[in-house]
Each structure stands twice: as C-alpha cells, then as structure tokens.
Amino acid sequence: TVSGAIIDGKAFAAGLRERVAAAVPTFVEAAGRPPGLAVVLVGEDPASQVYVRSKGKATIAAGMASFEHRLPVETSQAELIDLVARLNADDAVDGILVQLPLPPQIDEGAVIDAIDPAKDVDGFHIANAGRLATGLPGFVPCTPLGCLMLLKGRLGELAGLDAVVIGRSNIVGKPMARLLLNESCTVTVAHSRTRDLPSLVRRADIVVAAAGRPEMVKGDWLKPGATVIDVGINRIDAGEGKTRLVGDVDFASAVEVAGAITPVPGGVGPMTIAVLLRNTLVAAHIRAGLVPPA
Ligand code: NDP
Which residues are recorded as binding NADP(+) (predicted)? Predict the structure, then answer.
C-alpha cells in the first residue's frame, strides 16, 4: 500500500506557466513591448544546450521575447562581461541568465556580479542573495523557489514546521534554507560533514534533498507523514547499457512513509523553468514601473 500522495510538479509547473502567459498581454498593452529574457551559453556542454533550448522554447510559448547568445568555448571573461554589459543596457531585456557551468578561464562569480541585480532572474547575484538572507524582496533562485511553491501548495502555512535541507550549495541548499526560515520553519541544514543524517531527517516535517547522491534518503529515515521534496537529478546505470534518472531519495521506500513526495522526473525539475518565466515577468513589471501580478 502506498501512503504518500505524489506531488505532481509537472501539472503545478504547467499551471504556473499558464498564469504567466495569461499576464503577458496585459503587460504588452501597458509597456508597449513583451517581457524579454536573454540566455547566454558559452561552449557546447550537451546538458547546458538542452537547458538553453528548453528555456528559449518556454519563453516564446509564454509570449515573451527570447534572446539567445551562443559564444565559443574559448570566450574570455572580458568578452563575456562585455556582452553582459550590453544586455544590462538593452531596454528590451528584462532578465539575463548566464548558463552555468562556465569554462575554466572564466570566473563565474565575476560574471554573475556583472549582471544588473534588477535583471538577475536567476537570483545568483550577491545583492539578491543578501536580500534573501536579510528577508528583503528580491530575485530568488528558481529551483528552491519552485520547491517552496510546491510545499506551500501542498501544506499551506509552513510556520513552526521542522525542516531539514540536505545540501548547502549557493544555488539550491542555502537559498532553500533561507526561504524556509523566512516562512518561520525551524531549519536544519545538512551537508557532507553532518553526523547522523538519518536521525536529523527523522525529526523533520519537511525534507528537501539536494545533495546529488542517488537514492541516499531511505524511507526508514523519514517521520511518517513527512513532506519530501527531491531536488536531485542523478543518472544511474540501469543495466543492459541503459541509464535512468533517479533523485536523492529512494522513492520506492520513501513513498510508503511520506505524507507527500515529489517524483524524479516530474517533480521539482519542471518547476525550475516555470519559475524562471515568473521571475522574468516580475522583472519586466518592476523595470516598467508596473505592479507585478500576484
Ligand atoms: P552541489 O554539488 O553544488 O551541492 C551538493 C551539496 O550536498 C553540498 O552542500 C554537499 O555538502 C552536500 N552533500 C554531498 N554529499 C552529501 C551527503 N552524503 N550527505 C549530506 N550532504 C551531502 O549540488 P547542487 O546544489 O547544485 O545540486 C544538488 C542536486 O540537485 C544535484 O543532483 C543536481 O543535479 C540537482 N539539481 C536539480 C535542479 C532541478 O531543476 N531539479 C537544479 C539544480 C540542481 P558539502 O557542502 O559539504 O560539500
């Protein structure tokens, strides 16, 4: 018997994308132009190419303008920062996303901090990270914000709940922990040096797994009824020369204990692009002096 309800991230993301698309015509009427998202890809990393292509398609499907910039792998940091400066100055561009990872000759932090914080729809700029850390409004990284939307959609009010975030990266774990703290959860952040992770997870009403460790979190680690958000995307060997995608949670055992759980694929993954579109719509409204839709 399966006790856990499966959280349908794909359906939730489709709803968010529809709401964004529905708000675009009103913006176009008021601003005289569509919201615009510029995506910059340096080099030919296959996974990054797939992400950039799907971001571009989703942007156009939402009725927004998509500006794609593909630069050769040998691009220098100065050349990339020069492009970012031109996008900062371009009034048709509301959001700027530089696809990571960048080639080794380029310092990612220097490039991200060259982006105008008002166009930083990925929420990676230190000004936006600082705003989140101090509880001020700003742009929040898309993946953790998508996780928060799924949690609130499922649980409603989060105040007072015990949350464990597994992972402390700047793009997932840390912003996730800060979002949950801003919702008045009691937050524990676990990482590779954490002792006795199972007993920490056992106390949690909310578990967000973002460690990049295939099927690490087992069902018998969970408090019965816990809500489990699985951020991990891991490709593992499925035998006979095939591979398959799994999360950081052992879904088969966790679904027996959890109150609700996101699958992989079809959970957190689809939310990331939907939130990117939402952040771009918000950026466009703020830049045009309009009030963003709720
Ligand atoms: P990072 O590799 O940057 O960070 C992983 C974090 O997990 C680190 O803080 C690390 O600790 C911690 N960790 C590693 N091993 C363990 C362990 N055994 N126990 C506890 N903590 C551990 O990864 P990201 O944050 O970028 O991504 C995490 C996962 O989410 C990946 O699988 C990635 O593919 C996926 N992802 C999915 C997205 C989506 O759209 N669904 C978007 C972004 C990422 P320490 O700091 O000590 O090294």
Answer: 167-169, 233
Q: What is the DSSP code string of 233-266?
A: -EEEEEETTEEEEE-SB-HHHHTTT-SEE--SSS
Residue 246 near ligand 1, beta carbon < 6 Å = no
Q: What average pLDDT does the chain have?
A: 97
Identify the residue whose C-alpha is closest to ligand 1 atom 30. Answer: 232
* Mutation to probe ligand 1, out of 50, 231, 279 (largest number of atoms < 8 A from CB): 231
Which residue out of 148, 191, 230, 275 has the highest number of ligand 1 atoms within 8 Å of its CB and is therefore the one to mutate?
191
Residue 171 has what DSSP assignment?
T
Q: Which residues pair with 216 in a beta bridge?
A: none
**What does the block give as tokens for 45?**
């990393």
- Tell me which residue range forms the domain holding 211: 141-269
Compute CA distances 171 → 9, 211, 291, whole Å.
Answer: 19, 12, 27
Question: Is 279 contained in some domain?
Answer: no
Decide if 168 is inside a domain.
Answer: yes
CATH number at residue 84: 3.40.50.10860
| 269 C-beta closer than 6 A to ligand 1 | yes
Tell me the pLDDT tens digit for each residue of 222-269: 999 999 999 999 999 999 999 999 999 999 999 999 999 999 999 999
Strands 242-246, 234-239: pairing is antiparallel
pLDDT value, residue 289: 98
pTM assigned to the model: 0.97
186 lies in the same domain as 240: yes
Indicate if 173 and 221 belong to the same structural domain.
yes
Domain total in the chain:
2
Ligand 1 centroid distance, CA of 213 (Å): 7
178 marked ligand binding residue: no
State whether the beta carbon of 144 lies less than 6 angstroms from ligand 1.
Answer: no
Contact assessment for residue 150 and residue 176, using Cβ atoms and an 8 Å cutoff: no
Among 37-41, 181-185, 238-242, the least confident range: 238-242
pLDDT confidence band for 294 (50 / 70 / 90): confident
The ipTM of this complex is 0.99
The verdict on the CB of residue 214 being under 6 Å from ligand 1 is no
User: 79 lies in a domain?
Assistant: yes
